[in-house]
Every structure is written in structure tokens, then in C-alpha cells.
Amino acid sequence: MTNSERRIPRLFHPTWEPWAVSGLAMLTGVVGGLGAILFRWMIRAVHDVLIADMLQKGPPVLLMAGPAVGLVTVSLITRYGAREVKGHGVPQILESLALRGGKIRPRVGLFGIIAPAVTIGSGGSVGREGPIALIGAAFGSIMGQILALPEKYMSLLLAAGSAAGIAATFNAPIAGGFFGLEIVLGSYQMGAIVPVFLAAVTGTTVFDSIMGSRAVLATPPYHVINHFALLFMIGLGLLMAVVGLMYTKGLTASEDFFNRLSLPFWVKAALGGLAVGLIGLFVPQVLGVGYPTMHLALSNQIVWSALAGLFIFKFVATMITIGAGGSGGVFAPSLFLGGMVGGTFGNFLYHISPTLAPHPSIYAIAGMAALFAASAQAPFVAITILLEITGDYRLTAPVMACAAVSYLTYNLFTRDSMYTVRLHRRGIKILRGDEIRPMKVMSVQSALEPLHDTVSPSVSVREAWQKMTDLNRSFLPVVQPMGGLDGIVTLRDIAAALQHGENQTQSIAPIVQPLPKPVFSHESLDQAIRYLSLYDVDVLPVQDAQSYKIVGLITRSGILRAYNASAIHAVDTRHQVEKLHKNTPDGVFVEMEIPDDSPLTGRQLKDVTLSEDALIVSVTRQQGAIIPHGNFVIQSQDRLLVYVAPASHRQQVIEQFGSREIVSFYQDIP
């Protein structure tokens, strides 16, 4: 029995485990509901100070100062208080699950409610849901750490806390439960469904008992009387997939832009805040969360040209707020943007023919669900939350059709959601459902065996036997004089030939085994295993995706070695990063790309003398993730994730690699 198992409280005996987990989840739900109330109060207080009072005491141009003051304040909080609260909340939850077993520092709960309240209250174009999810998750994590619970319970409490926060802020217990399962946990395991939904119901009940129960975006009763509406919803779904891709890419592009600016962090925050304030001076509807404007769109009280303009200005304001260092959610902005695009689409149809789209606002509702379903990769959350916040379940069919098409179309371009794209770029892959297999994220390149130690088909059986014995190999690749791969000859086949008394000088040509269809070098090891099982072989040829040449072989044993090496590398890297962080807490992850003229291009990693304050964490190239072992050869266009401590040595390390920095990520390790 391990130490962690001995520390599990007695309540977590198998008999009482479901009751204990559910009880803790409901307690987390209470905090999630109260946190949502406190958060709203803090937003209102900040707004009264930075916006309302300012406008009463001076000219409207002072509105520009509100977001600037707010973003500068938040930048100071995230710089010196808790860096985890920078951004939009949910990625921090996923990162804690992926890297720290669900552990979130207690200070995140404190600063995680202050920083986004300041951002939103001062006019920043972000939402409430991400921070509230982080607040609930932080409490669940803290409670799990106090009780010394193992990771599986900690993960459940994180999901329960985030579900309670989302359920409370949207008055949507079903959608909140799906949020905890679909986005945070990424699975629908029976052991998780009950506690997560209990937390969501508890959070909603606590919130409603104090604040009252009402639909967040109540709409007039609609009737989908045109049966062609579902066909139009499919068209809208295709459009929203493209908009969702723009939204996801825009969030990362804006952060990259501000990270590249050679300015003090507070100056970047001030400039971003002034830009948002300038937009708000002319289009005040884009400031803050924007629910009143969304309600007008759903009530068909905004003309279609204004809907299109609001989409553009809200998109820009949200990108600037997040990129300049604001703290807040991206859930509500996605609903706003989806509603504006959907409303424009519906009004366009209405102007073509009123009988085709008698209720243009229905498309605004469907657009909200479709954009979130695509950009968050969460169709169940998107569908249920729009039905709950509008209170109109007669819209189920059109909303489902639009969200499903948008989700599937977005998948054709990328599987990264707005919550995981930044983590993926840092080498942190968030796996979902059936994807939770380590070898699914490792490429065939990781286990590739080059075509060394080959033999010609004219080689004798005796010579092949001798070569295998000397090399301690179970097979040899058979290559034609012109370079084509014929197949392999195995030790078992040679032994059988010798056992049957065949002439030892006879060539191996008759016993060469042809190989099946090759696997591409960029495919995953998981896919390679499927091929090995399908063809019932131990060896597969590997083909380069660009040149279509056979570049090597992959074997079952090679796949196992690559997996073991990856596991060992992950543990060893984690320990080294912790050691660097302990000696120098101010560390930074630097993602860099190796150019063609780098002095390290073509050199093996073991021949590169890195400074003591730098550690290569991961390498990504076109074929996928590569394990950076000693014999690893650095190539141009490789993307390296390097941990540097202290952060002030970042530029020295970049110059040592002769590379160009893509972006830096600060990281606190508890």
C-alpha cells in the first residue's frame, strides 16, 4: 500500500465512497454558488467606481481611462500575486489536471475573483463564467489538498466546482454539469456524473435562493413554422465553424502580439485598455459581458447592419482585452459573437423572403450555440446552455442541427479548442475520452528505426544468419541494389531453412517476407499499433509524407521502447524543472523555432552544451512530438519548448540556439 493510499480518509472506504464524493461535491457546489454571487457584487462595485462615477464627474472621454486602469491593476495582480489568474480561467483548470494532479494554489481562489472582477467591472470585454469556474475549482482543489485526497478525487472536485460556478452564473444546472464533464474531465464516466451534477444543482439552488430564479436571456415564444429552417441551420453551422476558428486563432494571435511588444508589462496593459476604452467610447455595447445587447438581438430589436458592426467591434475588443493581460472568460464573448453573426444571417434570409425566415432571432440563438460548440469543442454544453438560458425548449431541433454541423466542421481544421490551444502550443496535450492513450500523441517518428544494417536479396542464408547473430537482431531489412525495400528476412525463417537442411549458400530471396502497406511518419503510434494488429505483423515500413520514400521501419518492440522513453523523459523533465524552479523561482517557458541558419541545425543534442539555466522540455516538428534524447538531431523549423530560470536569462538562451522566440509563458510550480 502506498503512502497516498494510507492517507485516504476512512469515509472513502468503497462502501461509502459514492456518498463521500457526492457530499464533498455538494459542499463545493455551495461555494460555487456563493462565489458567483460575490463575483457579481464585486463587478458591480468596480463598475460603479471606475465607470459610473467617472462618467458622472467628467466628460464621456474619461470612459477610455476605465479599461486602462482596470487592465493595469490586473497586470500587477497577475505579475506579483498569482500568474495563474491571467487569461480566461478554464485553461488553468485543465493545466492543473494535466500537470499537477488537480492542485491549485490557495491564492488563486483569492486573486481569481479579484482580477476578473476588476477586468469586467472596468469595461474589459470578457465574460464571468471562466473566472467563476476557476473559483469553484480552486475551492475543490484546496479541500482535496487539505484532506490529502488522491488525484482521481481531486479531479472530480475540480470538475464539480467548475460545474457549480457555470450552473450558478447561467442558472443552467444541466449545462453546468455537462461543462464539468465535457470540458473539464473530458469524459462521462458514471462515477463522475452524479457528484458533478449534484454540485451543479447545489450551486444553482444557492444562487437562486439569494438572487432569484430567472432565465438569463429570456426570449419571446418562437415557433419554427418553416420546415426548411433546418437546412438553413446547416448553412449557418458551416459559417459558424469558420467564425469559431477565427475566434480561437484570434485569441492566441492577440496574446502573441502583445508578448512580442518590447514594452513593460504595465505599459502594454495600459495601451490595451485605452484601445478597448476608445472602442467603447463609440460602441459602449461591447464593454463588459454584454448580456443586455444579446437580449436585444434575441428579441430582434437590432437591425442587421448594426449586428454585423457589433460583431466586428466586440471581436476586436475581446482580442485586445485578453491579449493585453486581462483576466476573464471567453464563454460569454463567444455567445455574443455567435448571436451577432446568427442574427445577421437570419435577417439576411428574412430580407430575401419573410416566409423563409419569419423569426430571424432564432438564428441568433442557434448561432450562439454553434460558435461555442465549435470553439469550445463542447456540443452538449452548447446545446443545453442555450436552451436553459433562453427557457425555450421548442428550439431544440434547430439549435442541435446548427451546433452539430459547426462542431463537426470545425473538427476538420483542428481539434484544439479555445481552452486547449495555448496549452497544446506549450506541449501540453489535453486528451479526451477515447483519446486518453499516451501513444495517441506520439508520432511514428518517435519509434522510427532507420534502414541501417540492411542485406541484399542475393545474400546467402549463412551470411544473413551470421549478420543477425553479430548484430543481435531478430530480422534484417532486405533492400534491392537500386535502393528499393523488398521486405524483411527473419531469424525464425532462416532457422527453419537451416533446420530443413537447405543449402547454406542459397540466397535468402525465397524466404524474404513482403511488408504490408506503409504507415506515414506523421501518424501516431496508436495508429501504427492498429496497423500492426490489422496486418498481424511485427514490422511496418514507414513512408515520408512529402517525398513518399521509405525512410525506415517501425516494430512492436520499438513502439514499447518509445513509450517507456517518453514516460521516463516526462518524469525526469518534471523533476529537473522543479529543481530549477526551487533554486530560481522566477522561471519562464520559452517556445522557439529553429531557423535554417541556426548553429545548432544538424547537430545531435548530446553535442550541444546548454547553459545550466536551460532545459529542453519538448520538441515538435511536422511529424509530431519527438522525444529529445541524446541522439536527437536538431533540424530547421523544429519548435522547442525550453524552461529557463531565471527568466532574465531568456534572451541569452535564445541567442545560444540562434533561434527566434515565438512566445514566452511564465509558470508557477507549487
From TrEMBL:
The keyword Chloroplast does not apply. InterPro entries: CBS_dom (IPR000644), CBS_dom_sf (IPR046342), Cl-channel_core (IPR014743), ClC (IPR001807), ClC-type_chloride_channel (IPR050368), RCK_C (IPR006037), RCK_C_sf (IPR036721). GO terms for molecular function: chloride channel activity; monoatomic cation transmembrane transporter activity. Keywords: CBS domain, Chloride, Chloride channel, Ion channel, Ion transport, Membrane, Transmembrane, Transmembrane helix, Transport. Residues 575-660 form the RCK C-terminal domain. GO terms for cellular component: chloride channel complex. The chain crosses the membrane at residues 21-41, 61-82, 108-126, 132-149, 156-181, 187-207, 228-247, 267-290, 302-324, 330-350, 362-387, 393-413. Pfam families: CBS (PF00571), TrkA_C (PF02080), Voltage_CLC (PF00654). It is found in: Membrane. It is a multi-pass membrane protein. This is Chloride channel protein. It comes from Sulfobacillus benefaciens.
